[in-house]
Amino acid sequence: MTMPRTVEEILAHADEMAEKFENYDPQPGDELDPEAVALLRAAVAERSEAERHLLDAVRAARAAGLSWSAIGTFVGTSGEAARQRYANKVA
């Protein structure tokens, strides 16, 4: 499906989605387990927070003069891989 671009396409798409919503007849296999979804959402939020903490730590390490090689050792990669992943985010 291509994204609607014109006003007419957007309105037609909205009408199509409204019709699908109004005529939706859920099947048991179509429904998502709310507990599983909640666990996934929580895990993604935790991962995002951990990535922010890691970025802050890398920023502090670079400010303290640690080399990319040392940082790579701590994050479980090579120094070059650490530099490629974080250099443009800590500057």
Summarize the structure in words.
The protein is mostly helical and 91 residues long. It has a domain of 45 residues. It is 73% helix and 0% strand. It is elongated. The model has no long low-confidence stretch (mean pLDDT 90).
| Poorly predicted sequence stretches spanning 5 or more consecutive residues | none
Largest sheet: none
How many strand elements?
0
**N- to C-terminal distance:** 39 Å
Order of helices and strands: HHHH
- Portion in beta strands: under 5%
- Count of helix runs: 4
- State the helicity in percent bands: over 70%
What structural class should be given to the helix and strand makeup?
mainly alpha
Average per-residue pLDDT, rounded, comes to: 90
Shape label: elongated
**Rg result:** 23 Å
Structure in a nutshell:
The protein has 91 residues and is mainly α. The protein has 4 helices and no strands. It has a domain at 47-91.
